[in-house]
Structures are given as structure tokens and as C-alpha cells.
Amino acid sequence: MGIGSHDAVKQLKALIDQVDEPLKNTFQNMHQGYPNETLVRFLKAREWNVAKTHKMLVDCLNWRIQNEIDSILAKPIVPTELYRAVRDTQLIGLSGYSKEGHPVIAIGVGLSTFDKASVHYYVQSHIQINEYRDRVILPAANRKNGRYIGTCVKILDMTGLKLSALSQIKLLTIISTVDDLNYPEKTETYYIVNAPYIFSACWKVVKPLLQERTRKKIQVLQGCGRDELLKIMDYESLPHFCKREGSGSSRHSTNGSNDCFSLDHPFHQQLYSYIKQQSLSFQPVAPIKQGSFHVDVPEDTKGSKIAQSIESEFQKFGNRNGLTHSLSGLNINGD
């Protein structure tokens, strides 16, 4: 950071030191012992404008309090069958670590259907993984590597991406908005693999709408991206869908423990066990009740614009391919 950057951090820290005690407490839970690094993340998200960053951060802290984010890891999705259904349709997992120590998060974008539970369960699951990453995975990586590691690497598998994905744009926009406003600058690099033509068509439209700092983080790799990814991680840390060309669906693996999307994978077993243990410590007597965790999501006009652009491109793609059915009949998932 330059002199200006240090001054911005100092000014923002002085402003945050003046907030009410509840906001200070949730900020402490959020920064996990690295307050300055957290301030830098938010400053980057607002182009180092202290006033805009202060508003963003205070809004985030209020969001955390109003939605009880500090205790979200004590609210399991029950019963287990429902959680398994969420995991089977929201494909995300931890496959390992990069050579630099960054957690490698795999996301099955193309084959995630989000059709076995309400929107609220999927948002709850996503935020729980974010919080577990920030409170458990990254602190462990810091201890192991003896230095601060505040970001992860994400590998987005586009296998199976279809026109029907249009029905999930609203949910994906909600999740993206949650991340943009409350978990900024947590990803070092996005690697996109197994990209079909439909992705390439949409990418041409979406890329100009992204901020430059975001565009620089995105790399579209050829095929499954194995050779390029092996430059930054060992073979064992590759997601199962990157381990060989033509390996097929990112949804299935011959061994559930090797499929980082599966509930049987060690990451998800540890995550779910951690959440259940936390729920007992928060509510040692009361039984765990079924019910989704509702989170308020502010409107993000930028995200909505991108979603509309993707929808428009899907429409044109369908028309060019002579589809007889109208995409206007597709329902966008809502609350």
C-alpha cells in the first residue's frame, strides 16, 4: 500500500472506532483478528473512497446484526435429508489448497439446479459456507502458513450449462449481491473451466459490465483447465472435474469422498458437524427446529443490470438456435 492507502485505512479505522458497541462486536467477529486487512478489503471495493467505504462497511455491520449473521453457524439446515438435497443441487465445496496456501473453492455452476428447497435455504447455505471459510478455514490456513491469508481461489465448472439456467438468475443475483456488499475482495482468482459456447456468448456481454479489478481476477481456461491449475496447486487439490479431460459430470464421482460437492466429502462432514455443535452451544436445551433462515438482501442495481444482460443474451442464443419454445415462459425463482 502507498502513503495514500495507509492514510485511507487510518481514516476509516478512526470512523469505525466511533460506531456503537454492537457494531464493534460484529466487526470483531468479522475481522477475526485482522481489522486493518478487513478495512483494506472494503476500501478496495469502493476504490479507496473513505466516505463510500464507511457507508458500505456500516451497512454491512448493520446487516449482520439485523440478520443475526454472527449466529448463523448455529442454525443447521435440518433434517439431514433436506441438507443433503441442498448440497446435491447447490454444488460447492473445498477441494484443497493452492501452493500459496489459499483455500480452493469449487463451484458447479452448470449443474447446480437449486430446485429442492426454497431460495432462503440456498442463501442460508451460501452464507454459512462464507462464514465457515472466514472463521475456520482461513484462520487455520493462517496458522499453518505463518502469515495472513484472507482470500480463496474459486474454480467455476460450467459443465452442463443450459438455457434453463435462466430460471436461476434471480437466486444467483441475490447470492452475488450478498457477496459484493458483505464479503468483498475474498476471492484471489476465479478460474472458469469446461465452458460451453453458451457461456462464451454470455461472457462477451457481461465482461464489459464488470469493474476492471473484477475482470482481472477472472481467467477462462481451456477444457477442464488441469494443466494451468497444476501450476498453482498440487494434483490432490484439483476438484474432481479437473483431474482429467473428459471426466464427465461435475455432479457425480466414483467416490463420494473425492467429490467435493458431496455431503460425504470431509469438508461438508466437518462443516455440518461444526454447525450442529455450535447449535448445541447456543441452544443447549431447545430442540433444533426445521425452518429456513431469512436474510434481507438489499437491491443491487449493478447485479440486476448484469442479470438482465445475461437474460437478453440467453434469449438471442435461443433464437439463433431455432428453439421452438419461448423463453418468456420460464419462471424466475422468487421467495
Question: How would you portray this structure in words?
Answer:
By secondary structure, this protein is α/β, with parallel strands linked by helices. It is 47% helix and 8% strand. It has helices at residues 3-16, 21-31, 35-45, 50-66, 80-89, 119-145, 169-182, 197-206, 212-215, 226-229, 266-282, 301-320, and strands spanning 92-97, 103-108, 152-157, 187-193, 218-220. The protein has a five-stranded mixed sheet. Helix 7 (169-182) links the parallel strand 3 (152-157) and strand 4. Helix 1 (3-16) crosses helix 3, helix 2 (21-31) packs across helix 4 and helix 3 (35-45) crosses helix 4 (50-66). The longest helix has 27 residues, at 119-145. The protein is globular and about 50 Å long. The termini are far apart. The model is unreliable at 247-254 and 322-335 (pLDDT under 50).
